[in-house]
Each structure stands twice: as C-alpha cells, then as structure tokens.
Amino acid sequence: MSLLRKLFKPFMVVAPYVFRNSQTVAYPTERLIFHERFRGRHKFYFDRCISCNTCARVCPCNSIKLVEVEGREGKYPQIDYQTCSLCGYCVEFCPKNALEFTDLVEFSETDRSKLVYSPERLTEVPDIKEILPMLKRRTETYLTETEMKYRKVEDV
User: Over the stretch 112-128, which tens digit does the pLDDT of each residue have?
Assistant: First the structure.
C-alpha cells in the first residue's frame, strides 16, 4: 500500500492545477491592461517643463541628464533606460508634471545607444499597434476568493 501511495502522490498534488484556468497571458497576441499607477516608459511635455533640474537631482540611478534642444531655450531631460529603475521619483517630484508614466514596457533594442531617449523622443508615445502588430486582444486581471484570473476586455 505504501508503494501505491508513493506512486500516486505526485499525481494527486498536480491534478487540481490541471483543470484550472491558465495563469499566463499569450504575449504578444494578448497584452494586459495595466492599472493607472503602472510605471512604464515616460512621456514628456515641453510646454510644462521649466528646466528646474529637479528630475535629474532626485534620480537615484543618475539616469536623467538635462540636454539642450535645438530651437528651444533651456535644458530638458534625457533618460537613459539602461540604468533607469522606473522608481517614479522624477514623476513624483516634478513641480509642473512635465513627466508622466505610460503603459509601454517594450524596451527591447539591438543597440544599447537606442535606449537613451532624447526629450523629443520622450514626447512621442507610439501606438501599441506599431510596437506589437500581432496584438489581437487586451486582457485584464481580477481576483476571486482563491486566485487571480484573466478576462478578455477588448479585441484590437
């Protein structure tokens, strides 16, 4: 009897999980809808920035440098996403809300120098369909009493 119990014990542990819903999202054809406070890529607003250097001073990773922009007075933030931890200090401490987070997390590049975003590049937030042309649907998470589940929200 002990031998049978040892033989079937692993199957009895795994069996309840076989019939549950999937715990993953089929990225890149499915993508999660993130919550409002999610920290993704930054968006920058030239008209709000007063070139106060607060974002660069509070950055614990030294990922932000102020650079001059052709055709504009003052210096504006340039973010190096190789070192940025997306901590949110720059967004939180900006007195004029010139920086904000988006839900874009797709940062993959073949050249590291492309991870340094100039102020002009930070103002342009691409559409998700440009980044993920194979995206078919958006899903969101919700909690039940026992687990987290996913539901389809919209077809793209």
Answer: 999 999 999 999 999 99
